[in-house]
Amino acid sequence: MGSPAFLTIKIFLLAVSYSWVSSVTASVSYDHKGIIINGQRRILISGSIHYPRSTPEMWPDLIQKAKDGGLDVIQTYVFWNGHEPFPGKYHFKGRYDLVRFIKVVQQAGLYVHLRIGPYACAEWNFGGFPVWLKYVPGMVFRTDNEPFKAAMQNFTEKIVNIMKVEKLFKSQGGPIILSQIENEFGPVEYEIGNPGKAYTQWAAKMAVGLNTGVPWVMCKQDDAPDPIINTCNGFYCEGFFPNSNTKPKMWTEVWTAWYTAFGGPVPHRPAEDLAYAVARFIQNKGSFFNYYMYHGGTNFGRTAGGPFIATSYDYDAPIDEYGIQRNPKWGHLRDLHRAIKLCEEALVSVDPTVMSLGRNQEAHVFKAQSSCAAFLANYDPTYSLNVTFRNVLYELPPWSVSILPDCKTVVFNTARVGAQSSLMKMIDVKDVTFSWQSYNEVPAAADDADAVTVVGLLEQINVTRDNSDYLWYMTSIKIEPDEGFLKNGHYPLLTVMSAGHALLVFINGQLEGKAYGSIDDPRLTFSDNVKLDVGINKISLLSVALGLPNVGLHFELRNAGVLGPVTLQGLNQGKIDLSGWKWSYKSLKGEALNLHSFGGISSIEWAEGSLLAQNQPLMWYNTNFDAPGGNEPLALDMSSMGKGQIWINGESIGRYWPAYTAHGTCNACSYTGIYNETKCQTNCGQPSERWYHVPRSWLKPTGNLLVVFEEWGGDPTEITLVTRTAESVCADIFEGQPSLRSWLVESGKALPKAHLSCPPGKKMSKIKFASFGLPRGTCGSFKEGNCHAYRSYDALEKNCIGQQSCSVTVASEVFGGDPCPGSNKKLSVEAACS
Ligand code: GAL
Description:
This protein is an alpha+beta fold. 18% of the residues lie in helices and 31% in strands.
């Protein structure tokens, strides 16, 4: 009787009865088919929006746009270092008002997936760990270590308790339906073995013991202990399955593209491939997916991790850094979501039957009692194919999935974009001009009264505790008149080895050179001949940190700054090692004076007019300006500057570094074939980031203070304020293309339409391009092909000019007859908005 088959049946029955019991008693539970909310199995569509990466004033609009895009759930990490900057001193205000954020989501009628972590990763400074944790005695991060576990438990409990007090868990009637403990710990556990396994067990038990009444997930954690659900993160997850068939198949990070690093190109992921990946996941039993990121936002202040993560965390997400829908991505995914939801009943009721339709083609059919949904997939990256499914012929474009909510009608194909695209432009705000003043941050020297002197080189984060990016390392050397180099002119070679991340070298107050690492290797070596004179020479090294690492293990061992050796070669005595000399340390004077704030700027004399410093290192700049009218998002064009930081009214916009141009490969990009983060990049040879978001809500109507600290030297007079706006909108629609509207409204009869709409307050002023036939190119660069209907413009001009939005049917008769019978024609159109 104890045979394995019998046991399996028994376990199965237990599981079934358990899930039935749990679905009626608890408000959120799950089984192998999905998350169950109030007794209903759901297909849940989620998107990541990290609350501190936008302003509270932006949250309602972002969440409304997420809802309009078809999302059910908003997912966010909880950012420990933002909430507990000092041990036991908590901060939950402004951008860190987590409860307010969750309530905004609740008010919009959406759910929340709260990734408490408290380790986040997320390209966030130190992965979300407070830097003070590094200095707790005995601390070893993310393993079976008592000090770490105690701190982690303390913060996790703190967050769970706040949520409970505010009644935010679904079990209490709130919006939180899921939580997460840890983040992608599986690969770390694999590396460290037993202590990692023990830590996983502990973390799971600790989390479950908090009795939130909603399920927990662990992402990338194949051995997640029951009842915690292990989930997938990646560009594709159709082949992933959880570690037990009592758990649903969930994808917690559908990467919508990738992050940008200073010095790296900007990644993009085509909407067609993203939709294809999601459709494949759903057709293969997936029931929850979350876009990472749905709105990436901005790494304000010094929150960027890495090191070298850029200030923009745009991520090529469906809602861009500025809070505007990125089209066609946003619209194409909205259409995908509608199509999936039309299939929801069948999807949650049964497992699919999979049939081959060709060598690289499959049908996944969900046939339930009263519903039937089918997904027809063509995995071939090159060829379009005609397949027969239930006696009907369907054309499948390469690398695409068609969705048939009735097993008959194609309402959506992942490679056929029905949504409009927009061409966004950054346009100078003409009526805002800056009148700059400058202040020179004089390089510090070892004999400065307020410098601290010790023997040897100190690790930078230990000194600054990450309260600043900057630390001066200073020493001096006496040159005797008999030094050979004074006669032969071969100046000595100074070599400085640093753990990172950037360095400026001053000799006797003069900039001698700079060095910096990269996201691939933060370390740097400065090595150059330096001009030394007879007598005392001051060596001043400004070491600059660029965000602390956010990935991996042993955060306690991470370091930065000039760790040495520092050597000087070419003196009479040969090569000397300065590492063990006396070194003095100091912070930036401008930071000590609070020059980024209203209070600080009035404490010193500034230069202006003809005395304004330009293209000189270590310069503070300030100017006043009035807020421009309108409500379009704002940014600063920093392309004339080198490297530094920006503040508006005392709030830090973040680090800027347009002088670090993007190294990498930027090729033409096709949506077909496996995507990875280096496939579709732009900006090669240009600044990785040129524009820096200025949140509208940080501005007053008049008298705003803009402060810039420039490290390398730049021209502030060329900095401009710009607005981000849709200059034109485009549609690119095939005749016969599947149309949701045709299924929903006109029972399969309607022809596809091109829909165009300008941003609120703008109208279509000109049809810049229109061609029905075989046009080529993309929005902004369409060209006529060798087939073009001669009346292509007429219908568009008639229906669209002077309108905010319009639509035109895509069919030969609308454009004066078929210009090339037998070919698969499309309409490409670009309309200017003004
Ligand atoms: C994941 C991680 C996220 C984020 C992402 C890359 O592995 O869980 O936090 O870092 O990579 O953007």
